[in-house]
Design brief:
By secondary structure, this protein is α/β, with parallel strands linked by helices. The chain has 13 helices and 17 strands. Bound molecules: zinc ion (ZN). Zinc ion binds at residues 166-167, 173, 182, 236. Its EC number is 3.5.1.28.
Length: 445
Amino acid sequence: MNYRRIFGNVWQSALVLILTLAPALAAAQNSIESIRVWPSPDKTRIVFDLKKAPDYSYFTLYGSDPLRLVIDFSNTSLKTSLDELGEDSLLVDLIRTSTPKNNNDTRIVIELAAKSEPQIFPLPANESYPDRLVVDLPGKSAERSGPAKSIAELKDRKVTIAIDAGHGGDDPGSIGPSGTYEKTVVLKIARALASMINDDPGMQAYLIRSGDYYVDLNLRPQKAWQAKADFFVSIHADAFRTPQPRGASVWVLSKRRADSEVGRWLEGTERKSELLGGAETIIRDTGHEPFLAQTLLDMSMDSSIAGAYSASRYIIDEMSRITKMHKSKPQAASFAVLKSPDKPSLLVETGFISNPHEERLLNSNGHQQKLARAIYNGIRQYFVNNPLDNTYLANHGTIEYTVKSGDALSLIAERYGTTVAAIKRENNLKSSVLQVGQKLTIPSR
Ligand SMILES: [Zn+2]
């Protein structure tokens, strides 16, 4: 046997051993430096601040009590206390450690009050934050601390509707053949709508302009955002160069136009915070990752446009009962006032002020009230059918429905996401035969 060869083998083995150990030794250097828990009304976010990018896996134990989410951090030590973590989240009962499979690992167990589909993703270090692992747990997480009364209040929050009367001040809007100003009639409709909304126990109104003055177009969505509005409706009257066109229409933001305009807007950093609206808190939390910010913004924009479409159908349905419609489907366009990414926003053209007949109608108090009532009914139906967590309408909302010709209980039930039996129970109906004009109370889901 060759001595050198044996030595060579030993040396090789040692080298292999060192190479095998090297990554393990290096990875064992990772550590959880701190843990932050942020409950918000609809989710709890848990952020693990780490020394290095996490190597992790997770699983849920939802078949046993307590419900648990288990996260294993490979070759990671825990350098922070878990005491009192998650105390102010309704969703998180306890955050603790458990025995990991490997000695170098850390196993974190999150005990939950309710099942939640976790979204878990790492974020790289940036100038403000170290490497992180973010755990989002969707579900009611509103703060547990504070007096019981405030929880009840939180649960039954009113939805805020921002009402934007178009034009104003030195901008009269369109002018009718007998001299009616658009700015004047739309303010009257907006005020009527506001008072109907304020009479509703589940809603409150915020008037973007309450008098005859002009508000900059870009400032209008911003004012709605400052008022923490859940919905934005802009009220206008149409005009054409000939007197014939007539009828109302409802407009929502066109996504394609919005994408490029929002993209350009995002580039102007001073506009960023006002544009991001509701998504802003999350974005602040994730540091300055532009792609994540854009993704969140897109999601927010998509869902608010979808909401606006859905709401516009309810409003069109209500309006078509009391006035002629110029367009019976929601119209898409890019209006400055509709560019709130965080809430459904739509624009109602209440009729053609350039049409002499509709100018008279728009001027009449009775028709203004009818228009306001139709818009109010549509918005209310939207919020009962698309309930926001912890709102009065989600918990107590019912809908008044007037039967139209061709209606059947099964169609109405399907449309409002309820059952024929539930409608019959709510209205003490013995049979399924409906009369046109009959009023039904539709129970909320
Ligand atoms: Zn207008």
